[in-house]
Amino acid sequence: MQFRFLAFAAVALSTAAPVMAADIVYEQPSPPTEQQVSSAYDWSGFYLGAQGGYNWNQATLFGSEVGLDSGSVGAHAGYNFQRGNFVFGIENDFNYNVEDNGDANVEWDASGRGRVGYALDRTLFFATAGVAAAGVKVDSLGAGKEDDILIGWTAGGGVEHALTDNILIRGEYRYTDFGNKDFGSTIGEVGATQQKILIGASYKF
Predict the structure, then answer these.
(1) What's the pTM?
(2) Which residues lie below 8 Å from residue 58, measured CB to CB, with a gap of 6+?
(3) What is the pLDDT of residues 108-151, one digit of tens each?
(4) Which one of 3, 184, 192, 195 has the minimum C-beta count within 10 Å?
(5) What residue segments make up the domains of the chain, in order of their start?
(6) Cβ(200)–Cβ(50) under 8 Å?
(7) Looking at the DSSP assignment, which residues form a beta bridge with residue 203?
């Protein structure tokens, strides 16, 4: 009887061992901690920045084309919304042009634009377009002095990179047609176009 009991116990233990071993070895994996999760950069939010560059201005003055190239320094502000890798936003900028070209000058320019871009984590490739304005002054000995505001359109694109969560840098090209306007009988119709290259930095709040 004792032998049969020992044999039965041995068989029972050998059958239960794999089940017990499986229970011991198998463990439910723990969810990843916050430090283990790698998240893409979030472009959403308000930003404010400064920029500088160079303008290739072309004006129609007294019936002929005149080059009014100038340096440029200014500021910009905008807001971005992000959906997946796509970034949508609005931006305004104002630039003061620092060259004196004699008889005529594009003294300042400004714009209000929409932006759309594609983000690769901390790098954003974007296109932009909207309304633009410029303050043009004509000061000619024979025709007198007049200044007015031209209003037209602008379009371009560029690339932006987040150095940190708050510091952004950018490079941008834009073409602008400010349209034409009558500056009076002594000067006539004045028009202006502009090609602009800008480098800037922003702080994202």
Answers:
(1) 0.78
(2) 65, 66, 67, 68, 192, 193, 194
(3) 999 999 999 999 999 999 999 999 999 998 887 666 788 899 99
(4) 3
(5) 2-36, 45-204
(6) yes
(7) 48, 167
